[in-house]
Design brief:
The structure is a homodimer of 437-residue chains.
Chain A (H helix, E strand, L loop, with lengths): L32 E6 L7 E6 L2 E4 H6 L5 H8 L7 H6 L1 H15 L6 H4 L3 E3 L3 E4 L7 E4 L3 H11 L15 E4 L4 E3 L2 E3 L2 E4 L9 E4 L3 E2 L2 E7 L18 E8 L2 E2 H7 L13 E3 L4 E2 L7 E2 L17 H6 L1 E2 L2 E7 L1 H5 L5 E7 L7 H9 L10 E3 L14 H4 L7 E2 L5 E2 L7 E10 L2 E14 L3
Parallel strand pairs in A: 6-22, 8-16, 9-26
Antiparallel strand pairs in A: 1-2, 1-5, 2-3, 3-4, 6-7, 10-11, 12-15, 13-14, 13-22, 14-16, 14-17, 18-19, 20-21, 20-25, 23-24, 25-26
Chain lengths: 437, 437
Amino acid sequence: MTTLNETHDAALTSWVASANDDTTGFPVQNLPFAVFRKRGSSEAFRPGVAIGDQIVDLAALAKLNLFDGQAAAALNACTADSLNALMALGRTHWSALRLSLSRALRTGSTLQSQIEPLLFAQSDAEYTTPARIGDYTDFYISVHHATNIGKQFRPDNPLLPNYKWVPIGYHGRASSLGVNQQFPRPVGQTRPAAEGEMPQFGPCQRLDYELELGVFVGTGNEQGHRIPLDQADEHVFGLCILNDWSARDIQAWEYQPLGPFLSKNFASTISPWIVTLEALEPFRTAFTRAAGEPQPLPYLASDTNRAQGAYDVQMEVLMTTQASRTAQHAPAHLSASNFRDAYWNIAQLITHHTVNGCNLQPGDLLGTGTLSGPEPDQVGSILELTQGGKTPITLPWGEQRTFLQDGDQIIIRAECRKPGYPRIAFGESAGTVLPAR
Amino acid sequence: MTTLNETHDAALTSWVASANDDTTGFPVQNLPFAVFRKRGSSEAFRPGVAIGDQIVDLAALAKLNLFDGQAAAALNACTADSLNALMALGRTHWSALRLSLSRALRTGSTLQSQIEPLLFAQSDAEYTTPARIGDYTDFYISVHHATNIGKQFRPDNPLLPNYKWVPIGYHGRASSLGVNQQFPRPVGQTRPAAEGEMPQFGPCQRLDYELELGVFVGTGNEQGHRIPLDQADEHVFGLCILNDWSARDIQAWEYQPLGPFLSKNFASTISPWIVTLEALEPFRTAFTRAAGEPQPLPYLASDTNRAQGAYDVQMEVLMTTQASRTAQHAPAHLSASNFRDAYWNIAQLITHHTVNGCNLQPGDLLGTGTLSGPEPDQVGSILELTQGGKTPITLPWGEQRTFLQDGDQIIIRAECRKPGYPRIAFGESAGTVLPAR
């Protein structure tokens, strides 16, 4: 269990002035990681840490040999085009690097003059997937989403009997994950128009987004060995935002009996920045089941997990369209929800995933599944917002939508806020639908 | 479309004498690829090609600079610890390397004296996964298996309406794929003993194997671009054997609504050797649907695909137990079936997988799903052999089985045979169940 340390001191400020108000959400208490290069260049991608509106180039920083011990070893792992080597080092290394970066970036640091030349403006950067993602697993941990979407696919039987016992998950496609994706509308088979007819084939007519968080695995486990619940957090490097684009009409026809496939694997968009679990420590919160809900089986329950197994992360979905961008309208707010309303938590996902001996590896990504909250304005997909496409939503500039149209852009943001502490933001995941090819 | 060329000449023999009868199934017409090193050593793994009971060390061969042009480029891609770089080069390179290796290993080759010192006895080798498998997809292409197993999970509704239109597939776990696996019996949740009770938790009681073939992707496709049916074969490097171990009791409880997860991802065992698609060219056969079956949708149908879309590959499942190995009994034959009985073929899987823009990458693995044939002795899982565990099978040495016990070993073999042509074998996939941890 990490506890709070000097890096979480709310009073800390940075000599990077833009880090010292809540505008960017990247104060010295956050220090999220990404892999970046100069926008439009053919430079090598390399790891960086955000501070205010700047990026500390970690590959360049490593060359200065300013840090010692585990912090130096961790920094030296940040010279490739992915964070996998850092992720593999483990929690004490991550924590040592965070502490050294925090001290180096604080107001009054003696290292300011050496580090200042290594700063890179975020406005000039482009990003790539921050890790080589070996395996991507998507879970289904919002009971509200499971109930809402279950009604669309199985009106009589929305929530299956296993839901409240098994953290339901399935394997997703790693190759089509990316940042800032622009992807053609998927094409595929959908249900026959009438029984006995051939299936229909063509561009997806019910294209959706899904508001999720992604959990990056740091250290893995050996095949055949499980990770106990109270050690699970030690294996987590950090969290990102995830949009699990979904072709609902393709999904409805293909998903039985083996689950979603082509309806999900054409694109999945993550945010470039990974907020470390240590940065989220001040936002841990109790994880308790409502009265009447079953308690998890013993391998998924512990006092520690109940006391602080959840995270208070607020998320928001926004949308722009071709027309709204042309007219320079602000993005439309579609919904907002909170990670703490999920039915299962991160440690439970790690432990469940490995209980059978399945091996996780550094850089693996676990999606939470759509994080819908209990209220109608807290749903994480347009399928839920429009009651399965039956009730269109009207955007502030007058356009209506049941599902996504070509040119539509979905932006997801996430942040942690509490009184007396700087805002900790995740940046955003942004992706745009192009016409079908 | 590859056609037959001089490497397929049935009359060719090799100066490696053990390649010249059908014992090994590795004649000069086969030339399968693996990644190997000296057994029990800490040598670097490197690619090799089988000839008879020997392996040509390709990393060592590359240093001799014996080949020219595309063959040399292909050979130079065989110096790492995986075949991914070779796979990424594409079909003309693979074919050029095959031709050069065929000429070098033929009786009378002028290169014999230079290559002979690079031979490595298969009996002294150990193998690793031949490629870094980025994504693993498992399909479900035997209509016989789908019907048989559907009866176990959904007695009233074994074959769902989508089966005859959609090549059903789902994403599997890449990290737990391996060769020669010995793995602990998985532990997990299973159905409550009675309605209203808690789920059961403990070691799997219904552990099964699945007889499959694996398809290694060679060249991939760009995200957003599909691979047309008549170009699909060009993207396939070759085939291996795959055993998709399955925990049926865990599967039955977890698989709704998102498909199998922990019931499959604890281990999946492939054969070390990849038989190239070019080596299988003489065993192409017609792919036609029986009278009364629907024809595939246009994107999954072509004259070429109908004329030669299937492969005549014979497979066999064998079993040993702790007791049979102690008593030195020969492995028990459990079943045999043929890949040509599948309802979908390799090109259709590639095309379907990418129709929505999903990107395949070099080294990706596609499993066929369990390849049960139409007859009761052609089923590819013990669930089918024992009618869902209701009718035990008796092994030749007297032991009975409904599902797999600790110590049980499953061996899967595959081969192609036809009159007047040397036997083309795949070697074997072997894996053993250890007690639960």
